[in-house]
UniProtKB/TrEMBL annotation:
Biological process (GO), any one: D-alanine catabolic process
GO CC annotation terms, alphabetical: cytoplasm; plasma membrane
Family: Belongs to the DadA oxidoreductase family.
Keywords: Oxidoreductase
Record-given protein name: D-amino acid dehydrogenase
Domain annotation FAD dependent oxidoreductase: ranges: 4-396
GTP-binding among keywords: no
Lineage: Bacteria, Pseudomonadati, Pseudomonadota, Betaproteobacteria, Burkholderiales
Organism this protein belongs to: Rugamonas fusca
Length: 414
């Protein structure tokens, strides 16, 4: 019989982690502070599952672009300087990683993790019908307004069998929802096999599956406060429900992981990148896109999920402030209306914001810690849904004593 494990966090990363640990033979409990799974960053994220097209935020030229974005009225970036040294430390580490060599190394790791995640999601969909979480595989289309940026991206994807370079005319022909943008586009890159789905519905379905597993010992609805540590390992997790004991602990609690890790003497290089989304109903006659679309320069994505259009964008570096900023919602609405004015009923769109826990280089942290029985599955940023299944299967293997594949050894605590 496996060990008793407490997974801290009931978002998509925590729930998938719980599942793969159950399948590895462990007895598992999940601690989640909200009344329902996926109440944080997993609730209304972009919905794109980008296994083959990954672009870490840290890259050469990004600092200059960031200055330009900060000056734009509807720019994708906002920065509010804080007295918190963690913000400045994260920014300094981010700037150090904004070079092509580091970006290429991170991209290679994320592509490998994406391949693993795609296969792992396929395994899980044998147990959770895709229709339960509006899963589709329409491919992903990245739009470019600048010919230079299009050419650079085309060189990077040259020879990739899953990608195609489309002219503007081809893009509009294959995705008529782009007609309004035709005059502004230089072209697009289409990637086969990319998917869209509703992360919240996926989490709810997975939570039901967890409860049906004989090794699942239930969900604890409470908040984590700290640790009891003896002899270099954890003996209990301090919670609002009282101390919770287990043989192993997994930290997968989004940005909350930063403070919890600090209580165990660990400094995690995480910062909450606040993102926004709109979920607008699609009416009969609306020209919503069928393909998953990303506007590269506007840093905005459009994903048709069931009978709704999800529009997601923005990186706000404003600390742990989860409240919705009406100005940012208005900005995102203007962007969507200008790009696809007839795609959905924007007047009845539901706004959401979430804190995405990101590392400076954009790669998650998966694996052991200096404490013998504390493990990490954190820092996925905007790609938690995409990488959740692969991260969970990787961590379960590592906890069973299996080494990480060579291509993924760089994902440990660094």
């Amino acid at each position: 019989m496996g060990q008793r494990v407490i997974v801290i966090g009931g978002g998509v990363v925590g729930l998938t982690t719980a599942w793969w640990l159950l399948e590895a033979g462990h007895r598992v409990r999940v601690l989640e502070r909200a009344a329902e799974p996926a109440s944080g960053a997993s609730h209304a994220n972009g919905g794109q599952l980008s296994y083959r097209y990954v672009s870490p935020l840290a890259d050469a030229g990004v600092p200059l672009k960031a200055l330009h974005w900060l000056l734009q009225r509807d720019g994708p970036l906002r920065l509010r300087p804080e007295a918190d040294p963690r913000q400045w430390r994260w920014l300094a580490q981010f700037l150090m990683r904004c070079n092509g060599t580091r970006n290429a190394r991170t991209t290679a790791m994320l592509l490998e993790l994406g391949t693993r995640s795609r296969a792992a999601m396929g395994e899980l969909m044998r147990l959770i019908p895709p229709a339960e979480f509006a899963w589709r595989e329409p491919g992903k289309l990245v739009l470019y307004r600048s010919p230079a940026l299009l050419n650079t991206a085309a060189r990077r994807t040259h020879g990739e069998p899953a990608t195609e370079i489309w002219s503007t005319a081809e893009a509009v022909q294959r995705e008529p929802a782009l007609a309004t943008l035709q005059a502004a586009l230089a072209g697009a890159i289409y990637t086969h096999g990319e998917a869209v789905a509703d992360c919240r519905l996926f989490c709810l379905a997975l939570a039901r599956l967890l409860h049906s597993h004989p090794g699942y010992e239930g969900t604890l609805q409470g908040s984590a406060h700290g640790w009891r540590i003896e002899g270099g390992e954890l003996t209990a997790l301090e919670t609002s429900l009282g101390p919770q004991q287990a043989e192993q602990f997994v930290l997968a609690a989004g940005i909350q992981s930063r403070d919890l890790a600090a209580g165990a003497g660990l400094r995690l290089p995480l910062y909450p990148l606040k993102g926004y989304s709109l979920t607008a109903p699609i009416r009969p006659g609306d020209a919503a896109p069928s393909i998953s679309v990303t506007d590269f320069e506007r840093k905005t994505l459009y994903a048709r999920i069931g009978d709704q259009l999800r529009i997601a964008a923005m990186v706000d570096m404003v600390g742990e402030r989860p409240a919705i900023d009406p100005r940012r919602v208005a900005s995102l609405t203007r962007t969507a209306r200008a790009a696809m004015p007839h795609a959905a009923d924007y007047a009845h769109a539901v706004a959401w914001s979430g804190l995405r826990p990101a590392t400076p280089d954009g790669a998650p942290i998966i694996g052991p810690t200096p404490l013998a029985n504390l493990w990490l599955n954190v820092g996925h940023g905007a790609l938690g849904f995409t990488f959740s299944c692969g991260s969970a299967s990787l961590l379960a293997g590592m906890m069973a004593g299996q080494p990480a594949p060579l291509a993924l050894t760089g994902l440990g605590l660094r």
